[in-house]
Predict the structure.
Amino acid sequence: MGVHEENQVAASVIVCSDLPYLFDSLQQRGYTTIGPKVADGAIIYGEVATADDLPAGWTDEQEGGSYRLERRTDDALFGYTVGPHSWKCFLSPPVRKLWQARKNGDGFEIEQGETSSLRYALIGVRACELRAIQILDAVYVGGSTVDADYQQRRQAAFIVAVNCAKAGNTCFCASVGAGPQVVTGYDLSLTEVLLAGEHFFVVTVGSERGADVLADVPHRPATCVERDAADAVVAEAARRMGRTLEVPGLKALLYRNFEHPHWDEVAERCLTCGNCTMVCPTCFCFTVEDTTDLTGAVAERWRRADSCFTTAFSFITSGSQRASAKARYRQWLTHKLATWQDQLGTLGCVGCGRCITWCPVGIDLTAEIAVLRAEDIGQPQPAVNLETA
């Protein structure tokens, strides 16, 4: 759906001073409101009790290996791009207890890990992030095995999406069809407009529960001028993408350049720190750890987020199967942009640019793909499993 088509959807206006009613309505319905706020020198996601907790007047400036907060010249509440956090941490926590066994005489009593009873309202979900959540849906609940905890959290979540008004220097969501305008999967969608001294949000409803919440918030029908202003905000963000990624033929390009010498050049810079996987909104790998207390009376099994950049990730009896930085970076990028398509029928990248910004040495996956295209050696992929190469 393009901007023109979105303009045909019934839209309303909430003036900025009435935004607190949105928080009140969600909290009265039992939701814990989660949104952006300034903390630790960045805009992160956490509990926001009122609209006053939002990052009014703050923006971010990002480049490869660089993130800085700066003051805006206005009081925009969502005038930034994205920070180091993704909504994944609320839908699939990085650490979760699966079960506990307690010794009882000659046997054990098993207690299953508790699933979350919290109902989150996620406020400020960008188009790329919403696409990332939809990708995680396919991973966790779209296959033969369902992650019950994720499913419960996801079904309970209320999503207030926000169309982007600012594209960052590392953003390329437009290249992969993941933004900057939200299309589906939200309960309410907001576009923030600051125009001639006015500060308001153009709102579209994406679900029945979204309509119920909006009914509690003072609003009125949007005028053509207001809808056009909202469309212009999103169109300007699309024009200002800081990066591009050429998608056609991407999977075949990576497969036939598996032994390209450029992987060695990237490896000379890569620290294998795993920052890219930690900030990525779609990376879903995890490991399972078993622990016992010193008495042997209690054993626990924990699930923890993992990264393919660690040597332990591919460790088997003969050792790590990806001992080099080259093998690990190649695995990550090839999986994200190629084998992910074979697994799930989509790219594993939504163009948010976090991996570029938060890489300590500024490795840029769009630049690496551009090199492979420019120096395509056309070598067939080796007869190996790319998941273990």
Observations:
- The chain has a mean pLDDT of 92.
- The two ends are 39 Å apart (CA to CA).
